[in-house]
Structure of NUDIX domain-containing protein:
Amino acid sequence: MTGPTAHPTDPETYATLHADATALLEGWQPTSPDAAVARDRTLRLLGAGPIAMSRQHRPGHVTASALVLDATGSRVLLCLHVKFGLWVQLGGHCEPTDQTLVAAALREATEESGIAGLRIDPVPIDVDVHQVQCQGGSLHHDVRFAVLAPPAAVEQVSDEAEELGWFPLDQLPEPLAGGTVQMVAPALAALRRSPLRLAP
């Protein structure tokens, strides 16, 4: 069952998204040794079936996030997360209406930035597994993508952020979430090789 009437606690709600995530990660060339380990852990998690895409799955669940760069690739958009008190990339839980991980990451980036016209590279730039407080303690298996903002993009703070800010790539803010900085180099590489051309 998929679509707006789907119920998030029904494992089959996420069947299409689960199939997409499995195929995407099975065919992905990891960008670092740590990403390779996280990818393998995430594929093992996906062995639990579609429920692994849901935040209800306490052993862990797949999330999708995006490192948003400006049109020149010289700055990154980060949010100061209300719950964590850390600067992080945009992203979060998959929803029953998401059909692909790419769509989930783009939806999250659009919702949290308030920027229309974001463009996403469909090849992941990183996978990271980290502890979170969901369901009283769980793991996020976060699949990350590079996203390019249109020229003159103006962000709007959402309910999940205390603040949004653009930062030069060599001057990231503190306190910074541990897994964010490792996304910068593969994001730049992705945007240079993909159709999402950086502005001159």
